[in-house]
Amino acid sequence: MNKFQTISYRLIKALLTFTLLFSFVEATAQIPKEFDKYLQKTDTTNLYWQVDKNPSFKGGYESLVNFYQKHFIYPRDSRKNGIEGIVYVLFIVETNGEITNVVATNSVDGYLEKEAVKFIKKMPKWIPGEKDGRKVRVLNIQPVKFSLKD
């Protein structure tokens, strides 16, 4: 390898490293800082918050409503004590549609949070999100409403 080829090789290697590093920083930098405490033990490599096509429940809104009707459980103790509220559940929709890293992000009532997480974990695979025409991991948040009036 001559001197020119060595310099070219090093330059290409440096540019490639910079490009890969920049892509990683861009992907993880877009995750809102408020979620850091929920993602401490999570691999955030190539995890997106804003994508070109959001992940979606297979079958759309109607299927999601049907899923709620079949699988939603209002904890007995919370119902008995008149506790209501919305639990916001954070999770990742993986490139294969699987739901992982499910966690409640707010505190309403321990029973409600536990049931909301359990409910989201029961969900079947979703249609994955897309960025630049390829399937990507997407951080998602789903409100789970517990209401005694509805």
UniProtKB/TrEMBL annotation:
**Which keywords annotate this record?**
Cell inner membrane, Cell membrane, Membrane, Protein transport, Signal, Transmembrane, Transmembrane helix, Transport
A single GO molecular function term of this UniProt record:
energy transducer activity
Chief location of this protein within or outside the cell: membrane
| Compartments where located | Cell inner membrane
Where's the TonB C-terminal domain? 59-150
For this protein, the record's Gene3D superfamilies field holds: 3.30.1150.10
Coiled-coil parts of chain:
none
Q: Name one Pfam family in it.
A: TonB_C
Q: Which residues form the signal peptide?
A: 1-29
| GO cellular component annotations of the record | plasma membrane protein complex
- Transmembrane regions listed in the UniProt entry: none
The way it spans or sits in the membrane comes to: Single-pass membrane protein
Entry's Gene Ontology BP terms: protein transport; transmembrane transport
Q: Which branch of life, at top level?
A: Bacteria
The similarity comment for this entry is: Belongs to the TonB family.
* The name this protein goes by in its record: TonB family protein
Per the UniProt entry, what species is this protein from, by scientific name?
A: Maribellus comscasis
Q: Taxonomic classification, please?
A: Bacteria, Pseudomonadati, Bacteroidota, Bacteroidia, Marinilabiliales
